[in-house]
Give the backbone structure.
Amino acid sequence: MPGRLRIALQAAAVLVVALLLALLGWKVFNPDEAPDAGRPAPDFTLPHLNSDEQVSLASFRGKAVVLNFWASWCGPCKDEAPLLESAWNRYKDQGVVVLGVDAQDFDVDAQRFVDRAGITYPVVRDKHGSTLGHYGVTGFPETWFIDAQGRIVGEHVAGPLTEEDLERNIKIALGRPA
Amino acid sequence: MTRKLLAVLVVALAVVAPAAASEQNPTLPELERELICPTCHETLAASTSPIAERMRAFIRAGIAAGDTKSEIKDKLVDQFGESVLAAPPKSGFNLLAWVLPLAGIVLAAGVVGFLAYRWSRSRKAEEAGPSANGRFSLDPELERRVDEELARYDA
């Protein structure tokens, strides 16, 4: 084999291996894991469930956010919806927003769920599940608490919330822990 | 010639007709094999998750309403994104997923063929001994001595 061709093939092989290593390194340093408390909450912009209005997490900067991931087929989500609605009604005048993110679901089912549960807090629809990876969501429901500066605070509740979970973490997000 | 043409047409029909029938009248089992459950990332056929059950109900309703296979798939892609398809669509950027493996196989076959050809040529050259112009290549020192001997002989 001519020397030049051999060198070109070797260079191509080294390039392919380097690209694969770079991909591996990127995946190792950017895993789909839950962000740590104190870190900025991953931002997103998603359409409102029942309108074309786009809602971004950043637009709630200055308020504490209860970020709840759910789907209509999830049993525990039905149980905790009244708790979230109640917290929204209690705290919305104190600078707290409950934001629901519906994913892995049908539009019509999600809307029916919202109607039946009497949910009045904003709900966005993540059709492609793009936020799930950024928040390391592995099942429904999961809830995050975000302070007025847009940082993750308190506990990440993987599973159904209790009244105590909500009260304790909303107070942390408001900067007034018990 | 006519017979050959007829045979080609029969084979083409045998391949195309079932595909067209499947597109117009899809069945639940075939769609279950071609779609992925978004929560467990298995085919619908292998999944018993709540959303898989809901998707099966959606597919049954679509079939009952006379939807084609593409229409049912498009509606599910609209709800869950392209990751719901077991195989990427053969269009746009996704076409690469179909073309690249074939291109890789063709390229690899070409490289192997080229190397085999070169290797067989060098083996033949070694076995034959003389170079392509029919002459043995001599050591320069030996060639000089032969020239000297020939010159002395001529003299």
Summary: The first helix of chain B runs from residue 2 to 24.
